[in-house]
Amino acid sequence: MMDQEIYLKRLYENRFDLRQCKAKEALWKVLIDSFIQKYISPHAVVLDIGGGYCEFINQVKAREKFLIDLNPDSQEFAAPDVKVQHVDILAPESDRLVPRDYFDVIFVSNFFEHLRTKEELIEVLSFCFNRLSSRGKLIVIQPNFKYSFREYYDFIDHHLPITDSSLNEVLQAIGFSVDLLIPRFLPFSTKGRPSSPLLLKTYLKLPILWQFLGGQMFVIASKPH
User: What is the pTM of this model?
Assistant: First the structure.
């Protein structure tokens, strides 16, 4: 059986070539500067789970920056101030390798759909809850199956369908307080579609467009004091 790290490396190398990676990096800069950064203090300790090629964690302003990903390429793309761990957060050893009650913000983008069961989702969200400091925030960008079902399984590694309602429910059951939930935010994917930083900047300023084009949700949930 193929090693999981090798499989992930090949999968994402085939999915995103160097040109596409550079284009995504530029889009992430706009998304962070125009929208996400206002929810993250530059003095925060931030953990990015499943951050892949580090487009978010390299560019967000924070006091300390960490990334967890099984793809071995993550280390090569990480900026010098990003601490990278190749940890399977569903494995028992993750409990001792990643500190509890430490992070002010945990960011998760396009990760939950790769989980295979609802039980795994609960386990990952519980992991996040336990790693956040008091009043820490979980920020999620996630395909919303309700609005992206036609394309959701065009990617071979998408398994678990999640909607804004189901994610809201499980977050509250674990103990999070859901502070902000935007069911329709970004388009489902930029792969194979024309996109530019200027178009994204304009799109972010016109929430009415989100109602027609948004296939991903945006969620902020906090850990109560």
Answer: 0.90
